[in-house]
Design brief:
65% of the residues lie in helices and 0% in strands. It is built from 18 helices and no strands. Helix 7 runs antiparallel to helix 15 and helix 9 packs across helix 15.
């Protein structure tokens, strides 16, 4: 069943359907007409299809496993092979020296889990089968986690969850993003983007300690997750029915800062626990790695040429600027907590001198979840077409020259940031004081 059918949102959060007009409204009308005809002419088939449509995970998780497994079986080496070997080293006596190779720009938590999965897959014997099963598990896990993230976001914003579960599942499984991540050996990029969504949801619910825990875990998967630090400034939004509970500006700022400090301390503690043993007791050459982009034509490269800064200093500038952009959006209490997440990731990509093909995945998945949980009529009008166009982001880098891609990518990223700013200006909400503890809501 298609994601545009809000009527099929069994198990969805309470709330009125997301506004739809234009093309989406015409498709919704066509869908209702055809499903009524199917009910009349083939009731048994209609019941079966409706049951399938209400369970997108049952359809798309196996599809993702097949797609990812097919790619994983034919991409045995490269970064994927390097990470598998490093992951299995994490299970041995010399695990504290796993980062002696400076190019291993990945987190210990990801390597540990990958090492365990690779060790378990060895019981299958045939190397090609091992690779296919390992990649299939990663792909299926990403799609399931993406759909669960979409469901949690929908329930947080009180909109039907079935459309977003279909949308994000289709984009990941069949839009090429899981395949691109698996093929390049970097499915963890998508995982970090999804974890940052959960950081935002917890912060926007007043659970800043748990948000900090998730941020620390995301950084233990990959270092660039630290750009999510500004997201911790999110605070709970007022329900539309109770605007009188909103805090004034000073109280809101105080609540945001208290939550950010609390969550930030937890995130720093988790990050120290994750990386500390390798830095103190092992041989770690991570910060000796150089990407070779200083002095290039990119913004960071020009900064490096003017200042003589090292590549890691430029990376710190990139991360700091991205975190500040996320903080700027979080500080203004956007209606959707995903706005600062998307803004921070978009700024990271805008400043990145490499823009490898798998880099766009986290931004796309966050924007898809944000679009399909939005109540904005303008978003509802265009989200179906934009979602259908996302595979072009995977395909075009293989078809167009780098010079064209650089200009196009910069234009699109600036447009994304402008759209997020426009959305924030339109839909700012007052906030409520967060709960005094970080206990999960009942």
């Amino acid at each position: 069943m298609a994601p545009s059918s809000a009527r099929q949102g069994a198990g969805s959060a309470a709330g009125s359907p997301t506004p739809a007009d234009g093309t989406t409204a015409r498709l919704a009308l066509w869908w209702r007409t055809e499903t009524r005809r199917l009910d009349r002419e083939h009731p048994a088939l209609a019941r079966r299809l409706r049951a399938v449509g209400a369970r997108p995970e049952a359809v798309l998780v196996p599809v993702a496993a097949l797609v990812a497994g097919a790619f994983g079986a034919v991409v045995p080496e490269g970064d994927a092979g390097w990470f598998r070997a490093a992951g299995q080293q994490m299970l041995g006596a010399g695990f504290l020296d796993v980062f002696a190779a400076s190019g291993l720009q990945i987190g210990p938590l990801y390597l540990l889990v990958l090492g365990v999965l690779a060790r378990v897959a060895q019981v299958l014997g045939q190397p090609t089968v091992q690779l296919a099963v390992l990649a299939g598990v990663q792909g299926a896990g990403l799609v399931w986690f993406g759909q669960w993230t979409g469901r949690r976001t929908a329930r947080h914003l009180a909109v039907p969850d079935l459309p977003v579960r279909w949308a994000v599942g289709l984009v990941l499984a069949l839009g090429g993003f899981v395949a691109e991540g698996i093929g390049n050996g970097h499915p963890e990029e998508l995982l970090v983007g999804l974890l940052l969504v959960h950081v935002a949801l917890d912060a926007a619910s007043g659970r800043h300690s748990r948000a900090g825990l998730l941020l620390g875990l995301a950084a233990a998967v990959k270092q660039w997750a630290v750009i999510g630090g500004g997201i911790l400034l999110l605070t709970p939004v007022v329900a539309a029915a109770a605007p009188a509970q909103g805090l004034d500006g000073r109280a809101r700022r105080a609540a945001a800062l208290r939550g950010a400090v609390r969550g930030g301390l937890v995130a720093v503690a988790v990050t120290i626990v994750a990386y500390g043993p390798f830095l103190i007791f092992g041989h770690t050459a991570t910060f000796e790695f150089a990407w070779g982009f200083s002095g290039g034509t990119t913004l960071l490269g020009r900064i490096g040429a003017l200042t003589g800064a090292s590549d890691w200093t430029l990376r710190a500038v990139q991360g700091g600027a991205s975190a500040l952009v996320g903080a700027w959006f979080a500080w203004r209490s956007p209606r959707s907590p995903l706005v600062p997440v998307a803004a921070a990731i978009a700024m990271r990509l805008l400043l990145d001198p490499l823009r490898l093909t798998y880099y766009s995945g986290p931004l796309v998945v966050v924007l898809v979840i944000a679009a399909w949980t939005s109540r904005d009529a303008v978003v509802g009008r265009y989200r179906l077409a934009l979602t259908a166009a996302t595979p072009l982001i995977v395909v075009l880098p293989y078809l167009l020259p780098r010079s064209v891609l650089d200009v196009t990518g910069t234009t699109v990223l600036l447009a994304v940031l402008a759209a997020l700013e426009w959305s924030t200006r339109r839909h700012r909400r007052p906030v409520v004081a967060p709960a005094p503890t970080d206990a999960p809501a009942a």
